[in-house]
Please model this.
Amino acid sequence: MSTEQDVESGLRQMEGYLLWTSKVAETRTQAEAFTRRLPWLTTAQREEVERVFTEERLAFHRAALAQLADRARELRGEYEERYLRLRARCLAWCAGGVGAVVGLFSYVVQR
Model:
């Protein structure tokens, strides 16, 4: 692995870490907001509801992120395949165009 690839890999890991950290913070804020609407809860009950709420929401986010990552990999494969076909088609057209120009040039020179 080259240094450039190491840097790219590190940046992706950092981006993932920051994304996950923001989801955790957002989820905790939502859990606190949810329990504030339930003023009759005791402190222990409030903490338990916040813990369960956070646990459930993070499981949801983890599953959603896994689905997004899987779909991104699928799309990358599809787009790479399309790009390769398009590139081959363009090269074929260019080669045909060059062949036509060379043929026409040869014809004109021979006359």
